[in-house]
Fold this sequence. Notes:
The protein is of the alpha+beta class. It has one domain (15-149): Nucleoside Triphosphate Pyrophosphohydrolase, CATH 3.90.79. It is built from 2 helices and 7 strands, in the order ββββαβββα. The protein has helices at 55-67, 135-149, and strands at residues 15-24, 27-33, 42-43, 46-48, 70-85, 91-106, 115-121. Strands 1, 2, 3, 4, 5, 6 and 7 form a 7-stranded mixed β-sheet that branches. It is globular and about 50 Å long. The model has no long low-confidence stretch (mean pLDDT 93).
Amino acid sequence: MNTPPDPRAYPDRPILAVSAAIIRDGRVLVACRDRGPALGLWTMPGGVVEGGETLTEALVREIDEETQLKVEPVGLAGHREVIVRDAEGRAQRHFVILCYAARWISGEPVLNEELADARWVTPAELAELKTTEGLAVIVAAAFERMAAIG
């Protein structure tokens, strides 16, 4: 049986994605990825924006698909650019990820096949985890964004 080609491999332009620093009672939800390119790293849940979706629609959908949580996007907390290069230096993956601060509305994490684990942690506890690059900075910005709106 032939495996279809990965549509995200060797893109001709960056792929737009969203993620959420979901804040609940002074903690943020982090998830451990069960797939590459961030396999085994703790990060924020999220995923690729589909055609015809607004950024916040994509965020709400992706969080529901990955965790079954209901969230309210509050605003941008920052962005990350992920470029994974192959042995020849070509961009094998290229994502631009818009990271949102989001308020937890309801639910407890129920993980899909993309996630190995999820935890509610304080920002200080992030230092104890192997995370994606810049995660602590984004989480700090998300907490600041939430504090600014009250």
